[in-house]
Amino acid sequence: MTKNANESPEGLVRRVTWWGLGVNILLAAFKVIAGWLGHSQALVADGIHSITDTVTDVAVILGSYFWSRPADLSHPYGHKRLETTVSIFIGAMLFMAGAGIGWDAVTSVHKAHAHNVRMIALAAAAVSIVIKEMLYQWTRRVGRRANSVALAANAWHHRLDAFSSVPVLAAVAVSFVRPEWHLVDHVAAFFVAILICYAAIGIIASGFKELVDQGAPPEVCEQIRQIVTTHPGVRQVHNIRTRYSGSQLCVDLHVVVDSEMSVYEGHRVAEQVKTLLLQKGPEILDVEVHIEPVEAALSDRECRRI
Description:
Elements lengths: L8 H30 L2 H27 L13 H27 L11 H28 L2 H29 L5 H29 L6 H12 L6 E10 L2 E10 L5 H18 L3 E10 H12 L1
Parallel strand pairs: 2-3
Antiparallel strand pairs: 1-2
Helix pairs in contact: 1-2, 1-4, 2-3, 2-5, 2-6, 3-5, 3-6, 4-5, 5-6
């Protein structure tokens, strides 16, 4: 599906998520029904996991209408943190789904299946793997194009659904060939739960790092410093501070210039440095530049030594 040339990143996020929502609803219903008709607990658990995908799809669609809003008096830095909040919500939903599936698998491990597993369960697991992997690849590409952390998290939700169907497919195949090995179906369901919870913890941890204002890694700060020093009016760069707002960076830095430079010239350098970083920097949302004359920078350095 091609992208409309005039489509905004948020519109692109919503479009791919709407398609994902439709696929998830159909696939979840298909797996639950096939698992019920085919007598596979693992496939029913996998279908329930797919149902949670519909909740996260709705969260991304609704959230995109809010985090795309421009800055206002109440939110001078914009609303991008809402995207991070949505990604944490997705992680929490994943974790709860995984915990529920794992609990059900453990508490019912002693129960044998009343009926043998049927071919429909085997076919449903195989179809699920193919469809969810295709949905993951498409969502991931769009997430990178739109630079959306929430869509990237949702893409991994699709990938984990595909991964979780692999042991389900194996378990259903074993149970189909050897009905007396019903334990394999329960073990596969528990393995799915572990995969889901592990991914959920990673998504939640990544979101919390942004909410507590963790800065960019050293290599990104060094990249910022090198870009700024390419400006002919910049003598030195120091005190670079960064924090994430959604998937983008807010940057504060001090730029040392010639002390003979006028206030107007210093202001021009600051504006040009800001433009330089916004054009060439690593996904930067906003830049604050503090201008210092050479003498002030030297004085500050001497004070730090005392």
